[in-house]
Every structure is written in structure tokens, then in C-alpha cells.
Design goal:
The chain has a domain at about 35-165 and about 290-330: 3-Layer(aba) Sandwich (D-Maltodextrin-Binding Protein, domain 2). It has 13 helices and twelve strands. It has helices at about 20-25, 70-80, 95-105, 120-125, 140-145, 205-215, 225-240, 250-255, 265-270, 305-315, 315-325, 335-345, 370-385, and strands at about 30, 35, 60-65, 85-90, 115-120, 165-175, 195-200, 240-245, 260-265, 280, 290-295, 365. A hairpin with a 2-residue loop joins strand 1 and strand 2.
């Protein structure tokens, strides 16, 4: 996830939609925000959500910052009578998992009814038995409006436990005034930007982008390729080239001018331009990384009825259009483009929102890591992060 840190945005937001052609071009069904899609579904038997007759009471939703507009939650509350506690407490996939894992292992959710994480991470949680299966009888909008290209991803072929929230691209966000010439991941290692670069603490996004800089296709990368890229990142960290590794919180470094460029997510730059018009997301010359993030209901979740009601609500095209117009990511809901074309027809021309096959021709799905290779790669990258 996708998404960065935000306190408030103005009305200048773009929209995202996921039409069949864009989805095919992006290959979003098999990718994950910050991680790669995992082949096959979870192996641990999971409980199924038990629904009440009608949503009521309250629900707590954990999500990334900059990932929802200001009206959807109060509109949902008014429409359903459900009180929502919406918490922007997700900064990175691994960080959030490490925080919640001890709680989830006890069959508890920490009071959360929904959280939003990358495909690879929710698959990991499902395999550990931490997530509930959905009762689709309460999700008619999802069944009707989920983009066809996203209905049967390899990691959850029947969307038994996931509902996509948004999709997007990872590339470079620059301050045009400070670093107008940066267009390549390789340029982030140039000495003139020493101490002025942030990189994501997401191993499945940062390392593959560096591999692409070195001419390696992440889809065919060997463990040695991963380790070589990690060594390059390690050297840049030790020399002070990289200011710090961040999750969603790189936004503050960009808007304050602490950095010239970051590895960052596509929707954020447009939103951050409200605070600093010199901020711009750029497609790396090497190509971007593609990802999706999903809503899930954890074990022990209070009020899963209200949780599914919220999922269903945001899959009504007019409601999703309101979110998409604000967050600037690719939406998984069919019909949003038609809604937005009537309001802002020029938005359909934006490559960040409706990426064409030519725009994403050099992009890659976040790669799969498994077994010993995954352990070795994560251990090596964690050593860099904690070095």
C-alpha cells in the first residue's frame, strides 16, 4: 500500500478507476502492496463471519493514512446507524503485522473489525489462521461490482477472505525544485543526493526496484540477485546516502524539504502537492512495481456484521467514486469511471489513474518469496533496516 501519511487534503484530488483494460495492463490480480502475491490460498481452516440480521453498534477500521476521503465514514454512519472509529495506524505491512501478531495468535483482534494490508501479508495471516472467511450474502455490491480481473487472484481464488481496497504503483516521488532531473532508481544512488533520499522499508518493493536498476527482472530474480541488491542498499545506508527507511511517513520528509526524492506510492504525490506543488510522482525509467491491498476481517473481530456492511457500502460505484476522487489510486470497483466522467471527464486522461499498457510496459508485479529464500532475504534486509 499502498498510501502515505496525511492529515488533511484539499479538494484537488484525482480519481482512480479499474477498467478491464487497465487491470489487464497492470496485472493487479497477482500483486500486492509492499509484497508479492502468494501462490495458492491459506492452508489453515478459518472460521466464517457470523452475521446478525442488521448492522448496528460500532466498528473499528484500521487503514493507512491518505486512503479515504472525509465524507465516506460520516455518510456510512448516517446510512446505517453504525458508529465508526476510523484509525490511520498502518505505516508498513511488516510493522503492522509484528504489532498485531501476538494479539492475533491469541484469537483476538485488538478491537479491530477491519484492517487493510497487502495481498502477500493478508495471505500470510490467513495461512496462520488469523483471518475469518467472509459471508458473501451481505456483500451483494462486492459480488456485482468487483472488477472482473480481480475476482480470482491466485492467493484467494474465490475472494473468500479478502475484498480489494485500492491498487497502485510504486516509483519515485521527487521535489522538482530540488531534484528536477531524477527519473531513474539508479539516480537515487548518486553522491549529489547524499542524505537526501528516503527508501521504503518494504522489502518486496524497494529491493525489486533496485534490482530493476541493475537490469534484473524481479520475476526471474535468483536469491543471489536479491542479495546483490540488498548489498547495494546496505552500502548506501552505511554511507549516509539514504537518509532513512520509511513506511507511510515519508510524506513529512518530502513536504518539509528534508529529502529530494523517495521511493513512494503513486497516489500520494498528487495529494502531497496540496502542501507542496513541487512534489511529483514519476514512473522510473526502469518501470514501477504494481500492487493491491485488501480489506480483511480478523479473528476475534467485534461486530463483523458492521464490518461487512462497510465493505458492501464502499462497493457502490457512487460511494467508491467519492473515495477514488480523493485518494488518487486505481479503484477495484466497476462503474466508477462512468460516475466520474460526468463530474470530471479530464480525469480519465491521467496515466496515474487509468494506466495504459504502454505506460506500465516496464512495470513488474511484486514478486513472490517463499521458504528459505524468503527467510534469507527478509533477514538480510532487516539487518540493513536495523543496522
Amino acid at each position: 500500500m499502498r498510501s502515505t501519511d496525511s492529515k488533511g487534503r484539499g479538494p484537488l484530488a484525482l480519481v482512480a478507476t479499474l477498467v478491464a483494460t487497465a487491470a489487464l495492463a497492470l496485472g493487479l490480480a497477482a500483486c500486492g502492496g509492499g509484497g508479492g502475491g502468494i501462490e495458492g490460498g491459506g492452508s489453515t481452516a478459518a472460521s466464517t463471519v457470523e452475521l446478525e440480521a442488521k448492522p448496528s453498534g460500532s466498528v473499528t477500521i484500521s487503514n493507512w493514512p491518505l486512503y479515504i476521503d472525509k465524507s465516506t465514514v460520516p455518510d456510512f454512519e448516517q446510512a446505517t446507524g453504525v458508529k465508526v472509529k476510523y484509525v490511520e495506524d498502518i505505516n508498513s505491512n511488516e510493522e503492522y503485522f509484528n504489532k498485531l501478531q501476538p494479539i492475533l495468535a491469541k484469537g483476538e483482534s485488538g478491537g479491530r473489525s477491519i484492517f487493510v494490508l497487502a495481498d502477500y501479508m493478508v495471505t500470510k495471516m490467513h495461512e496462520l489462521g488469523y483471518l475469518q472467511e467472509l459471508d458473501k450474502s451481505a456483500l451483494p455490491n462486492v459480488e456485482r461490482n468487483l472488477a472482473a480481473s480481480l475476482k480470482h487472484p491466485p492467493f484467494d481464488p474465490n475472494r473468500s477472505y479478502t475484498v480489494p481496497w485500492q491498487s497502485g504503483m510504486t516509483g519515485i516521488i521527487v521535489n522538482k525544485e530540488l531534484a528536477p532531473e531524477i527519473h531513474s532508481i539508479c539516480q537515487l544512488f548518486e553522491s549529489k543526493y547524499k542524505g537526501k533520499i528516503d527508501m521504503l522499508n518494504e522489502v518486496r518493493e524497494t529491493v525489486p526496484l533496485v534490482m530493476k536498476c541493475e537490469g534484473v527482472d524481479p520475476a526471474n530474480a535468483t536469491e543471489a540477485d536479491w542479495m546483490k541488491a540488498i548489498d547495494k542498499i546496505k552500502g548506501a545506508a552505511e554511507s549516509g546516502q539514504i537518509r532513512r527507511f520509511t513506511g507511510n511517513d515519508y510524506a513529512s520528509d518530502l513536504t518539509s524539504g528534508n529529502v529530494d526524492a523517495v521511493i513512494g506510492w503513486s497516489g500520494d504525490a498528487v495529494q502531497l502537492q496540496i502542501e507542496n506543488p513541487d512534489i511529483e510522482w514519476r514512473m522510473p525509467t526502469e518501470g514501477c512495481m504494481l500492487w493491491s491491498e485488501d480489506m480483511v476481517i480478523p479473528v476475534g473481530a467485534p461486530n463483523p456484521t458492521a464490518a461487512e456492511a462497510f465493505m458492501n457500502y464502499v462497493y457502490e460505484p457512487k460511494n467508491q467514486a467519492q473515495i477514488a476522487e480523493y485518494v488518487n489510486y486505481v479503484t477495484p470497483v466497476e462503474g466508477v469511471k462512468q460516475v466520474l466522467e460526468k463530474k470530471e471527464p479530464k480525469l480519465a486522461e491521467n496515466d496515474l489513474i487509468f494506466p495504459s499498457a504502454s505506460f506500465t510496459k516496464n512495470c513488474s508485479n511484486t514478486p513472490t518469496l517463499k521458504g528459505t529464500e524468503e527467510q534469507n532475504v527478509i533477514q538480510a534486509f532487516d539487518a540493513v533496516l536495523n543496522g
